[in-house]
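Contributing new complexes? Match this layout with adenosine-5'-triphosphate.
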Amino acid sequence: MAGVIGWDEDVPTGVLIGLTPLGGEAVAAEVKKDRTSGHMELLHVMVVDDDEAVRKACCEIAGRLGCVVVGAGNATAAQAILKDHQIDLILLDLKLPGGGGMALLEQVKMLHPETAVVVMTAFATVSSAVEAMRIGASDYLTKPFALEDLTLVLERAGQRHHMDVQSRQLRERLRTQQGVSGLVGQSPEMEKLYRILSKVAFSTHPVLILGESGTGKELVARSIHFNGTNAAKPFIAVDCGSLVPTLIESELFGHVKGAFTGADRAKEGLLATADGGTVFLDEIGELPLDLQSKLLRALQEKEVRPVGATQARPISARVLAATNRDLATMVEQGRFRKDLYFRLNVVNLRIPPLRNRREDIAPLAMHFLAKMQKETGAERVFSDDTLRMMIEYDWPGNVRELENAIERACALSSGPVLHMGDLPTQLQDFRMQRGGSSVANGMEQADEDNDLAAPKAGIVSIAELEKKAIMDTLRQLNGDKLMAARLLGIGKTTLYRKLKEYGIAEA
Ligand SMILES: Nc1ncnc2c1ncn2[C@@H]1O[C@H](COP(=O)(O)OP(=O)(O)OP(=O)(O)O)[C@@H](O)[C@H]1O
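Output block (do not edit by hand):
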């Protein structure tokens, strides 16, 4: 019989209760045999039980599993320990003297929410274990419990703790832009995304990534894979929107030799090739209905049947899917299978459009500029107006449009400063539409910096506006008249004429 802890009816107290038949060496051997996780050494455990024998037994087993263990005989002692020590897991007897167990649990969950609590209760009081789980206990043990039960609970807590630590570290890396996949952005929306991402990276469930085109869905999928536990396994992206249906089928599920004309040899499908890695199904909304059924079966059964094959093959790939379509509406319209939608939508990650997180635009722009500098070796900066315009623009093509705009500006610009004239036409058009307010803003700045004669009465003549616009532009371009004429949208000769006319030839 395996050792039993907490069996205090026919076993005398004061020794490792119920462990006597195993003896010290046997306990160690049993624990070693059961040990499956390598993360126990990270776990700081506190055992809170007024029954010294049970406390000692639990401490010894946790210690043998590699945990750093401390015991407390009552709630006050436990509180004192919690004040000075980082405790990852508490094994808590609910029946502490004075009903203190439940109160201690509540206090721990409030003051130390990251500390896991496993409650120990007598068989007769299982209902209090249920109540404890409701308050936040992560697990429970019913006394008397077997050695393996305790080992299992400690193993589980160790694994959970390890995952939590990894997930916290990943979130921090993502926040500080050190994420392996280079996700940039610290808006509250992106912070929220990192929080979910750092959790799903360590699971194997499907994840549905939603967002407009160019918001970074594939980058997020890569980030999930390359920050997860199977990062060394393949990441395979399949664009369901650009492949013809017959090709998608044989790509995903494979085919046997002679399955169709041209299939002169057997081919393994990507779901099988991924072999423990990730298959990223981009544009999942474009997948034809019959293939949706086939994919659903593959996800449910964890096996695929290649085209033309009679036998199914096991698969172990994780599936991440993305779409810029409204899948829920497609389900209502009967264009997407409801059961597949539910299967993929276990967790969903919604990436907001760039216009809804404008604080990310400048960091992203800087990121892409730095990337270009690495590629070309040319150092460049944005003029203030260019950056302001980029922040105000709505970016319907999202991050991809921003990246392309900066690449283009770098290619076109003749000097180290990227001006508005270097941005693509859609931004120029936007600038024209916003012209009034931009000129006004420019004037405000000019007034501050140059103290140009701003009319106090609030009425500004067109000539005055024009003069200020020219002055302001020249000031920002360090007197580069050629560039000023280009950005102002007038010819070089016109600019010289106006400089003379307004008496600013020396500007
Ligand atoms: N947060 C981000 N940080 C850095 N780069 C980003 C970010 N989001 C997107 N990008 C970059 O923008 C470009 C478009 O991203 P991606 O291809 O992942 O978008 P998508 O949503 O999958 O687009 P589509 O819907 O068109 O397939 C890529 O070059 C990607 O590296």
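Reviewers usually confirm one structural detail per submission. For this one: The longest helix spans residues 147-175.
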